[in-house]
Amino acid sequence: MKAGDMELAERYDKILGWFRANMPVATTELHYDSPFGLLVAVMLSAQCTDKRVNMVTPGLMARFPDAESMAKAEVEEIFDLIKSISYPNSKAKHLSEMAKKLTADFGGVVPGDMELLQTLPGVGRKTANVMMAVAFGQPAMPVDTHVFRVANRMGLVDAKTPLETEKQLVEHIPAEWLSTAHHWFILHGRYVCLARKPKCEECGIAPFCRYREK
Q1: Staple partner for 77: which of 10, 44, 73, 124, CB 3.0–4.6 Å?
Q2: What's CA 115's distance to the chain center, in Å?
């Protein structure tokens, strides 16, 4: 049977089965020591590599290890510590505002609730989903550029937006595998299914992939 002829359920079964067999352990490549540290790292990672973020966060978190200390900082102080990453001006402002609201409204504790997370400045749906999946171990499917590209390419979804992609993946992936699948897709997109030139010849999923069939 050709990949293009597969029923959707079978495609999910084949692809998820390959990942379970070949990448049973998958997690974030961001370094963090606390839910607050992860939240800061994820906010910094927007349109920036995890490698670069991991170079910045040790100094930032040593200076501001919690929401209370960051809330008291001047935006310029935060900027000086993150200026080597993308969009440091807006990210410094968002970090400052996030820390102030987290301190004022939540006692400095990062809430383990999807809706409450999105009330924090600079925290959108993707970031909130990452927190739910990674910090709190809840079933969630954050959709970044890698997940969006890989899921559509493989034929797991037919979606035009990250939200559509998230909803279709959540519908078809068992809850107990959802958060791990998020990491599978990110890592696959980061190292194999590259944006400009996917490495189809060395991809174990190629026999089940709609893109490869085309």
Answers
A1: 73
A2: 17
